[in-house]
Specification:
The protein is of the alpha/beta class. The protein has a single domain, classed as Alpha-Beta Complex (Spore Coat Polysaccharide Biosynthesis Protein SpsA, Chain A), CATH 3.90.550. The protein contains 8 helices and 15 strands. A 9-stranded mixed beta sheet has the order 2-1-4-10-6-14-9-7-8, sandwiched between helices. A hairpin with a 4-residue loop joins β12 and β13. α3 packs antiparallel against α7. The two termini are 31 Å apart. Pfam families: Glyco_transf_25. InterPro entries: Glyco_trans_25. It comes from Acetobacter aceti NBRC 14818.
């Protein structure tokens, strides 16, 4: 499997930190992220890639299109790929455990999330046909203990994924990439109901569209997670519009 991380040219410090945090993964390949400030929104709207006025800033558009370009490549080359954002931190046995987990999935799997944002909930179908399970984390402790996490060997199970926010690390199959492109393009002005927080959420990022569509795909999540993010809003390249 290919291991690709998304990183802008100007974010050299984030690149160095990512590579240090994930040095146990060999052959990490960098994808040069789309710089949001270089985009022409009117051109994207004319091309049918944007409908209405989604609550995206320019960095959010760049992030969304970066993921979409990678999905197109996965679809074209026909090879499942693991995609990271450049704030991802993986556990020590990530490669071994993620490969073992994928091997246990049905052949028609689309996507598996290795982690999610810990300031929100993870909704999984733990008791299929009985009840969803809503998982909450303490983000403060996640942010404080990432150094411990990257030295850990984590054993996980996979569960059907229903909803969550954050895409710090995930693997996607060619079929899943095709389904995501169909579900997420164009980027629309709309709201989605998120059962984990029991309210409607406006489409403010590509992970919001993905979250709404997980239940319509063969989507999975690892639990416990194999990948964390500090989700630090102070240095985020999306929320800070930098």
């Amino acid at each position: 499997m290919k291991y690709i991380y998304i990183n802008r040219d100007k974010d050299a410090d984030r690149r160095s930190t990512f590579l240090e945090n994930n040095s146990h993964i060999s052959d990490l390949r960098r994808f040069c992220a789309i710089e949001g400030t270089s985009l022409d929104i009117d051109e994207l709207r004319a091309a049918g890639m944007i409908e209405g006025n989604p609550e995206y800033n320019m960095a959010s558009y760049g992030n969304a299109l970066s993921h979409m370009l990678l999905w197109s490549a996965v679809q074209e080359h026909g090879e499942a790929t693991c995609i990271f954002e450049d704030d991802a931190i993986t556990c020590k046995n990530f490669v071994e455990m993620s490969e073992k987990t994928i091997a246990s999935l049905p052949e028609n799997w689309d996507i598996i999330l290795w982690g999610n944002n810990h300031d929100t909930t993870l909704v999984i179908d733990m008791l299929s046909g009985v009840t969803p399970c809503i998982i909450s984390y303490y983000e403060f402790f996640t942010q404080k203990n990432t150094d411990k996490f990257r030295e850990m060997n984590v054993e996980c199970l996979s569960f059907r994924l229903m909803q969550t926010f954050g895409i710090c690390g995930y693997s996607v199959s060619p079929k899943g990439a095709s389904a995501l492109l169909q579900a997420c393009n164009p980027i629309k002005e709309c709201e989605y109901f998120h059962m984990g927080i029991n309210r409607n959420v406006p489409n403010g990022g590509i992970d919001h569209i993905m979250s709404y569509n997980y239940k319509n795909m063969n989507s999975y999540a690892s639990f416990p997670p194999l990948c964390l993010t500090k989700n630090d809003k102070e240095i985020s390249t999306i929320t800070n519009r930098a």
